[in-house]
Amino acid sequence: MKVLLVEDDRLLGESLTEYLQSEGFITDWVYDPREVMDLLEVSRYDVIVLDLMMPHIGGEELIKAIREKDKETPILVLTAKQRLEDKRTCFELGADDYLTKPFEMEELTLRLKALYRRKNPQDVVVIDEVEVCFSKEMVKVKGKPIPLSKKDWLILKFLVENRGRFVSHEEILNYVWGDEPVGEDVVRAHIKNLRKLLPEGFIKTMKGRGYRVG
Q1: Per-residue confidence (pLDDT) for residue 31, from 0 to 100
Q2: Is 124-212 a CATH 1.10.10.10 domain?
Q3: Which of 30, 173, 188, 202 could form an S-S bond across to 198 if both were Cys, CB 3.0 to 4.6 Å?
Q4: In which residue ranges does the UniProt entry place its DNA-binding region annotation (predicted)?
């Protein structure tokens, strides 16, 4: 799962990022909320986690801005504000969940997984001999699990979510690496590795259009 964390408290931001990464979440942390909208132009996330009380742009304003462009990505509000009216405002603006500080780290991960399941009700997809389980980040070929790196998993997940259509190098780069300076050769290397692990012909290529499964 790929998470965008928006938290201006650097100590908490570092702690949350380290914990989420240790639990297997791909996590991008932004401490300046003014950077969020530009980042969302080039990267896709499974869940957005954001604080309310931040400088420059308040959390409520940020939720509104995100929802004007993105109606689907779940938003979890992480804040010290506990009043019902604050919760009501966030939910009416488009937030999907609300967790008050202080909180247990495990509760945060449980909520993130629940939001992901709601967004992706079809948790298991089977294509020919390949079974993909999104919540467990697991891939099986003929019933046997295959080992995937985080980047390989994200690429395969993106292809399966878009099964039936070709996705370009640029789309894959934006989803997996965001604004990191990574070239198309890196994508090709990961596709080559995936092809070694998956049945022959599972990932199809069309010159000028990209890759497709299904």
Answers
A1: 93
A2: yes
A3: 202
A4: 122-214
